[in-house]
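Me: I'm a chemist; would you kindly supply a protein sequence with its structure tokens?

Assistant:
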Amino acid sequence: MKLKIFVISCVLTLAACAGQPPRPQAPALVCSADTQSETCKLQIAALPAEVDAHWAMTGRVAMVSGTQSGNARIEWQQQGAEGYRVMLSAPLTRQSWQLSVADDGAVIHGLLEGARHGADAQILLREITGWDIPVSALQHWLRGRPAPDMAVLQYRFAADGRLLGLVQNGWHIEFTPGGQWPARISASQGQNRVRLVVDTWSEAQ
């Protein structure tokens, strides 16, 4: 039986959990992955290819996966190119758990039955919570860029060259600009949805 972390605690709707998002900014340039436009090629080539090694953010996240929904406070700590730690806490029940990912796999702490380990963070999260969330891609999407090694069908750029959205690996991602990094990130794929509102960004020295 799967542990439905935070699902019972969320008695509000998804919109209320994360706040009503502003209307997405209309893109100035829409590019397909196989575009022949030189402007598109230059914009795509200018996108960073790797994740920033050390940074942290705090915010609020709302998730829907099939018939399940939940919301939580989130703290993300990036620990190198592939390592990260995600801490979630439910606002009503004050339950909390932590997902840690490194080169040798993933582990979730804070479960009643003790820590759970797995080779793949997304599979481990789905087994425990029922949520099918591409957490490995989130470390890139949070910073407003596509994840490497995943097919991108479309890019949407603002007039100043910032990425406003993309379609990647079946997910539709929208970024709301907020200075250097996004203020909001929305991602959807069929019945799966993630909406994240950033409260703070910090950069490691």
About this structure: The domain at 14-203 is CATH 2.50.20.10 (outer membrane lipoprotein receptor (LolB), chain A). The first helix runs from residue 14 to 18. The CA atoms of residues 1 and 128 lie 9 Å apart.
